[in-house]
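From: lab user (bench 3)
To: helpdesk
Subject: output format question, protein + flavin-adenine dinucleotide

Hello, I'm new to running complex predictions and I'm not sure whether the block I got back is the full result or only part of it. Here's what I submitted:
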Amino acid sequence: MIESALVWFRRDLRLSDHAALSLALHSARRVYCVFVFDSDILSALVGVGQTYDRRVEFMLESVRALRVTLRALNGELIILHGKAAMTIPSLASRLSVDAVFANRDYEPDAQSRDRAVLDALSKDGRTLVETKDHVIFERHEIISTDGLPFRRFSAYARMWRQRLGVDDLGEHVVEDEVTRWAAPPPHLATELPTLTQLGFAQSNLAELGIPIGAAGGELLLRNFLPRMADYASSRDFPGQDGTSQLSMHIRFGTVSIRRLVRCARERPSMGADAWLQELIWREYFQMLLAHQPELATEPFLQAFRGWRYLDDAAGFEAWCTGQTGYPMVDAGMRQLVQTGFMHNRARMVCASFLSKHLLIDWRLGERFFARHLNDYDLASNCGNWQWAASVGCDAQPYFRIFNPEVQSRRFDPEGHYLRRYLPELADVPNDAVHAPWKMSRNQQSATRCLIGRDYPAPIVDHQAARERALSALASVSKSR
Ligand SMILES: Cc1cc2nc3c(=O)[nH]c(=O)nc-3n(C[C@H](O)[C@H](O)[C@H](O)COP(=O)(O)OP(=O)(O)OC[C@H]3O[C@@H](n4cnc5c(N)ncnc54)[C@H](O)[C@@H]3O)c2cc1C
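Helpdesk reply: Thanks, we reran it on our side. This is the complete output you should expect:
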């Protein structure tokens, strides 16, 4: 047993079932807790012109909630604002702890930050103890017989399910023995910074009613459990309340991934099974990025490395602002900018439209999503973008090109989702709302939706864009 430990909270803003905290409480006589608003991460957001960021607000409020919970247990959360790579070793030294405990993060930047922290700690005779918490199986745990990552998701998912045992889902118990929580010296009991001090203005997060912190994650999970059995049949319909909405909580660790998998396994149904499969997709992308950090910027398929996409600034602008003339794409993009969320079906259609209909580099779309998505996660975002653009590992075949009109007829037949984000289509009847440009001029007048005035004409013709994409992508795809 060591004398004292410092638990460093990062993307794991909860107390229950927390691997690093549990291990620290079992290993040290005194345990301090810290969260750092990392100026390296925050200044990168401000650097791209972001004045508000829902994620920063979500984090701030979740950290506030975490501190309240810790205080109720007689603990304390030290809150710092600065470069984590420097502030953590310096705090560890001021508190004279033996070790820093943290849950492992697999993103390339986080990995180099953690290496820097470990180096600095080691110079002082301390250590960084990292634990697995964000995934059920990490890095090399599910691997093919040749020692390489599975190239087929289906094979990975099969082995993931075969390997899953009770131990993998065991709860990391966080004891509340007050003697183990250590209060920092008064000069280290820092105040929570304000949003302005962090460099951001208020967003519309509060108006959106997104539940915050561990209590918020628990609430969403409890709302979803009675709907879980229907997930397989309802998850694809963006106008329905068919999915869990837990992605932001999974991203910030305000729910435990083990708890989610336990919930799915305790309620066997087709829906629960389909939901579990999505959680496995998440782990697949995490595993791929851990193996190949270059996937953050480079396609998995070598043939597409260095491939030149079209330079179409006007097309990109229309896509970003939800003005492509294709309602399913425009509703998705406007939902993203207005709320920070986009339904998965719309994400697939929007990503396919940018990378195939417009032949614009998927990385531009990936960066735009990264800037706006509340649940932005490097591994999931890059993995899914590469999947949609047909350049990734086990990606969608290049010749599968979503027809946005067909997608919206199939998955939003009554146009509920479309009209929620496209008020200009409010009076357009169901049969026309998926392709308003096909209405006669009289019908457009009658429905107060003149194409070219109230709502844009399609920026590309679907059939022509499809053929252009097929011929461009076929030559590269066949050369590999
Ligand atoms: C182009 C594109 C970009 C995406 N970017 C992200 C991203 O940055 N962050 C992110 O969490 N998800 C991303 N996704 C996956 C998916 O769209 C979201 O996870 C999902 O819409 C979140 O809603 P939910 O929590 O209600 O999901 P549910 O349907 O309830 O699924 C439960 C959880 O499973 C995981 N999950 C579901 N689908 C996927 C998937 N396809 N890939 C990986 N994990 C999945 C998420 O953690 C999700 O919260 C992206 C998908 C596409 C097509």
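A quick orientation on your result: The chain has a mean pLDDT of 94. Let us know if anything else is unclear.
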